[in-house]
Amino acid sequence: MSKKNWRVLRELFRLRFHGLTVFRFDFFAPFFVDGSLFLIQLLAFGAIYSNVETIGSWGRGEMILYIGTFSLLNAVNMTVYFFGVTSIPHKVRSGELDLYLTKPVSPLFRLTFERISPGSVPLIVMSVCMISYGTASLDMTLSAVRTASYLFWLMLMEILYYEMEVIIRSASLYVVSMARMEQLEEAGIDLCMKLPGIALYGVYKVIFYLLLPYGIMATLPVQRMIGEMSLRGALYGIGVVALFTVITYEVWKQGLKHYNSASS
User: Is pTM, for the whole model, over 0.90?
Assistant: First the structure.
């Protein structure tokens, strides 16, 4: 990231934090909402797996680690870029995107980071606690190499999570209604948050490992943590992220060319 982008990021964060503290409800509301969401996820986990000993080859400890990992990916998403990326369709329809195209910084960069949400930070903390509990349940020794590898895969899957959100919202540059695509995204995330990728077979594995790769987002980091990741699986995960990086770039780039300014 260039020095200019770092300066822009610091300024965006300062302005966002100032705006949230002026409107105190906007600042504290996410603490309550995200905390409630996390508790609901725990209750759902307990209800679903109370009478199930294993999911595929994974027991309760692996599933706790999986739920915590997916929750952490979602928490970072909500904290850093979710509210910025999800505003893209509105800015396209209203013509506000025109203003971003005239600025001396990447429109996508500014859209991504201009609505950082500090209120979602507690969800990150709770997710880390759940991951710690999962590793403790597995009686696992956390070496520096294992921890670093897990963090590497978390970062890689967070990039994939971001790319999926951008691709879906970039469709607003081509079509009028985004409702169906957002419903598809919500359904995919909801399913894969409860069911790990190792439990998917056949057409479902094709869908959630390649077309809508939510199934690998928490599965691969957990597999690396517990020592189940093969070289083939690692290469596949890296390949999927690389593929969707190219797709994201092209979809956004071509979408901007297709975009008709509100003033035209």
Answer: no
Tell me how crowded residue 80 is: count the other CB atoms within 10 A of its CB. Answer: 18
- The C-alpha atoms of residue 35 and residue 120 are separated, in whole angstroms, by 8
* Spatial distance between the Cα atoms of 147 and 260, rounded to a whole number of angstroms: 47
Q: 209 with 215: CB under 8 angstroms?
A: yes
Assess if residue 263 is contained within a domain.
no
From first to last of its 264 residues, the chain has per-residue pLDDT tens of 566 666 766 666 666 665 555 455 555 555 666 666 667 667 766 666 666 677 778 888 898 899 899 989 998 998 889 989 999 999 998 889 998 888 888 899 889 988 888 777 888 888 898 899 889 989 888 889 999 999 999 999 999 999 999 999 999 998 877 778 888 898 898 888 888 899 899 999 999 999 999 999 999 999 999 999 999 999 999 999 999 999 999 999 999 988 876 554
Number of domains in the chain: 1
Determine, yes or no, domain membership for 264.
Answer: no
Range of the domain at 147: 3-258
